[in-house]
Amino acid sequence: MRHAYITGSADFIGFYLAELLLQEGWNVTGLDGLTDHYDVRLKHRRLQMLGRI
Prior knowledge:
By secondary structure, the chain is α+β, with helices and mostly antiparallel strands. It is built from two helices and two strands. A two-stranded parallel ribbon has the order 1-2. The longest helix is centred in the N-terminal third of the chain and has 12 residues, at 12-23. It starts with a strand and ends with a helix.
């Protein structure tokens, strides 16, 4: 199984990259600082969505 480590996994690009890789069967480890650069609630929702794939 392939493995990817993605920083910024709750940000726009990191989220969609993680989502794509998970759907393709990769094992993904994501890291995000959850800073308030923009809406932290959105970041939490994205991480929840990734956990359901």
